[in-house]
Amino acid sequence: MIKSELVQHIVSQNPHLYQRDVETIVNAILGEIVGALARGDRVELRGFGAFSVKHRPARTGRNPRTGAHVSVDQKSVPFFKTGKEMRERLNRT
Amino acid sequence: MAGKTVTRADLCEAVYQKVGLSRTESSALVELVLKEITNCLEHGETVKLSSFGSFVVRKKGQRIGRNPKTGKEVPISPRRVMVFKPSAILKQKINSGDGKA
Predict the structure, then answer these.
(1) Which of A10, A77, A91, B66 is the most buried (most CB within 10 A)?
(2) Do the Cβ atoms of B19 and A22 come closer than 8 Å?
(3) Does residue B61 contact residue B78 with C-beta atoms inside 8 Å?
(4) With left for phi above 0 and alpha for psi between -120 and 50, is residue A40 left, alpha or beta?
(5) pLDDT at A61 over 50
(6) Percentage with pLDDT > 90 across chain A
(7) SS3 A53
(8) How many A×B Cβ pairs under 8 Å?
């Protein structure tokens, strides 16, 4: 499923809403999550999962082809931990 | 760890601010979006949200684990797990968004 299909599914269940409003809603939700992570905040959605940001310190890496040393700057990466209910639903039956 | 935690209430508020719907309806729509994504994943289907990332369901075979406390070997049953693959845009925003990186 891609974003436009998600929007379609929601419109078909809410015929009183315009497609562009549903697009705005989906983008508002995702935008709020992205904004929180960009600030370094955590996003916790019970039953679904939690998004957080992990910091990776600078390190010396190797170019696997040439073996040359390259320095890798410190960076932050988004991390998602699956929620309990989601985990259970994936393994039902 | 100093940051605050964003929850459903904040997502509802964001929807409420953006669209002319009631708070009740905004909250119902946030639930519906999460429900749709969950249903899709439950069926083993990948969910791709452009400029955000994708949720992928992976199948794991049986393997031998160890109870870290007792050191005893225990079989871990085959299972399905969900992974989130952040988009390049999201990764970039996280690294330019705050002063930490």
Answers:
(1) A10
(2) no
(3) yes
(4) left
(5) yes
(6) 97
(7) strand
(8) 155
Q: How far apart, in whole angstroms, are the C-alpha atoms of residue B37 and residue A93?
A: 20
Token digits for A41? 């905040």
pLDDT tens digits along B5-23: 999 999 999 999 998 899 9
Evaluate whether B17 touches B30 at the Cβ level (below 8 Å): no
Task: List, in sequence order, every beta strand (DSSP E) within B4-90.
Answer: 5-6, 47-49, 53-60, 63-66, 73-76, 79-86
Q: How far is B53 from chain A (nearest CA, A)?
A: 10
Using CB atoms, pick whichever of A3, A29, A44 lies closest to residue B5: A44
Q: With a threshold of 0.90, does the pTM exceed it?
A: no
**ipTM of this predicted complex?**
0.87
Does B38 lie at the interface with A, CB-CB under 8 angstroms?
yes
Chain A residues near residue B76 by CB distance under 8 angstroms: none
